[in-house]
From TrEMBL:
Pfam families in the record: CoA_transf_3
Keyword Cytoplasm applies: no
InterPro entries xref list: CoA-transferase_III_domain, CoA-Trfase_fam_III, CoA-Trfase_III_dom3_sf, CoA-Trfase_III_dom_1_sf
Native source organism of the sequence: Bordetella genomosp. 8
Protein name (Swiss-Prot/TrEMBL): Carnitine dehydratase
Domain of life (superkingdom): Bacteria
GO MF terms held by the record: CoA-transferase activity
Length: 376
């Protein structure tokens, strides 16, 4: 049996990940990337996401592979007494439990937090759920797209005058996973003082609502219903996609200096002095006229060279890249945001960089494991 890694900010922390699908497994992967020893418990048939494809490799979907590195996997049937007894044995050595069973399942098995905290007082228990255990929606199952719909995210996403749209990635699930990581780290930090674990909860519903800035802040101030604005920012302009002579570019102008520099570069310096566009508020109010004037000027430019000039002048601008171009961009490689383990695994790298204890990539998905690794 190999020894647990001695590098990484979470080296020495043992995590029992009995979650499945996305939010919980994403949380477990982040903890594993930063050195935690993560043992993932799956039912005999495996996590459901193994079937969420195509594409597949050796019968396992890419979806699963993107969420379950830096874990070792053991199969247990927790619906059976023998499986639950084995889970209790593993909990004797765990610092953190991550689970996202339907609320009440663990309690029905006699393994709720109140019961387990008596036996394992230092255990940090993290539950990822849809809506929490109580309240009007308490105990109901939650799903990313459904929470995008009911939290208001879809209402502000889409083209102006168009229908509400789901964000094109599982943003609620992923942010819930991030919030779970934050909660676990907060609880581990507090454990240094108290010597006690605690219950941590991250729900899809809360996480979805937490993403509503600046729309919620706007509503709290004037209670005006937000409207969909396509790629445009509701408060700032020009903060939108713009046509050029070739491909579209995205401009993210946040202050007067940036706007004046943009106008000079595209040969329309007089726009910065126009009363309609002289302040951030005026530019936001007169965005329709401003977009038309800017696109007239941008028609004479090639997108890539324009973006290079703007960025060199500290004007926020970007090309609109597809997936291939983004993942193959030289800066993606420089930031180590595509990583590999062995000959067969590639995935997205850890976005948080630590100078002394960087992330590491040790276990490809599907690495078998029957216990926590030995400590040295």
């Amino acid at each position: 049996m190999t020894s647990v890694p001695t590098t990484g900010a979470l080296a020495g922390i043992r995590v029992l990940d009995i979650s499945r699908i996305l939010g919980g497994p994403y949380c477990g992967q982040i903890l594993g990337d930063h050195g935690a020893d993560v043992l993932k418990i799956e039912p005999p048939q495996g996590d459901d996401t193994r079937t969420w494809g195509p594409p597949f490799k050796d019968g396992v979907a890419s979806y699963y592979m993107g969420l379950n590195r830096n874990k070792r996997v053991q199969h247990l049937d927790l619906s059976q007494p023998a499986g639950r007894e084995r889970l209790l044995e593993l909990l004797e050595h765990a610092d953190v439990l991550v689970e996202n069973f339907k609320t009440g399942t663990m309690e029905r098995w006699g393994m709720g937090f109140d019961a387990l905290s008596q036996r394992f007082p230092r255990l940090v228990w993290c539950r990822v759920s849809g809506f929490g255990a109580d309240g009007p929606l308490g105990g109901l199952a939650g799903y990313d797209a459904a929470v995008q719909a009911m939290s208001g995210i879809m209402s502000v996403n889409g083209e102006a005058g168009g229908e509400p749209l789901r964000v094109g990635l599982p943003v609620v699930d992923m942010v819930t996973g991030l919030n779970a990581v934050i909660g676990i780290l907060l609880a581990l930090q507090e454990r240094h003082r108290s010597g006690k674990g605690q219950f941590v909860e991250a729900t899809l519903y809360d996480s979805g609502l937490s993403l509503l800035h600046p729309h919620a802040a706007n509503w709290f101030m004037d209670e005006r219903k937000p409207r969909r604005t396509g790629n445009a920012h509701p408060n700032i302009y020009p903060y939108d996609t713009f046509r050029t002579g070739t491909d579209p570019v995205f401009l993210a102008i946040g202050n007067d200096r940036q706007f004046a520099t943009l106008c000079d570069i595209v040969g329309r310096g007089e726009l910065a002095a126009d009363a309609r566009f002289a302040t951030p508020g005026a530019r936001s109010t007169h965005r329709v006229e401003l977009k038309e004037l800017l696109e007239q000027a941008l028609a004479g430019f090639q997108a890539a060279s324009l973006v290079d000039r703007l960025m060199a002048a500290n004007v926020p601008a970007a090309p609109v890249l597809d997936m291939d171009a983004a993942l193959n961009h030289p800066h993606t490689a420089h930031r180590e945001m595509v990583v590999g383990i062995g000959p067969d695994y590639r995935g997205l790298g850890a976005p948080v960089k630590l100078s002394r204890t960087p992330a590491s990539y040790r276990h490809a998905p599907l690495t078998p494991g029957t216990d926590f690794e030995n400590m040295e």
